[in-house]
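Input sequence (249 aa), recorded before submission:
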Amino acid sequence: MTEIKTLSKGLKALKIISESDIGIGTTELSNCLSTDKSSASRIIKTLEKQEFIRKKNDSRKYVIGSKLFSLTNLTRIVFDLSQFSKASLIDLVNKTGECAHIAVLCEQRALYFDKHDTNLSLKVDHPIGTLAPLHSTALGKILITYNHINLYDYYSKNKNLTKDITVLSSEIEQVKTHGYSIDDEEYEEGIRCIAAPIYHIYQDRVSAIGISGPTKRIKHDKINYLSDIIVNIAKDISLNLKSIYEKNL
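Predicted structure, token format:
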């Protein structure tokens, strides 16, 4: 019960700070929460440590931090995608015969947001909610390429990567050239994946849509044909998202 009360106060504090235009100080927060200053200070330190809030420049007041901006943006992206994702994934499965997935960038990993399975008995199972690495998945390579992630920063936060940074850099250049990415048994042995970018034009963010299947079905000589299908469906989703944003302007 104590943990629930603490969580409740933390969420209330986050709401109070996010609704303030000038920032909130410890004393003001303690008054808003009807709690003592030491408790308010602990809540602030916890939220600041997790980057949900930050101290305002040259001030004792706090405003929302980068992580909250990121989560808010992610929520909007997922909400917008959900309006088109299922129909697009079904279309992709019908045209390619393989499992289809959509992923969004979350904490420098690929978050599998939605999927549709093939009816074939041999299929790839990447459940919704899976967090996969960016450097070794087709969806991840799209996300790392078009969301302008600094490779040196990525490698500094993922110190046990076996793929050399020059190899990944070369793969990113190929993605930019061809407009799609490939995972050739990197993430899972015997599985080949192809992905393309979905553009969220007014948010300067990119999601990814792709297919996954056994190498005996997704052969090298089929990659160009399959990639064209994926790229075209990704373009259709991007145009639909653009129309949503333009209506809300």
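Checked by second reader. The first helix runs from residue 2 to 18.
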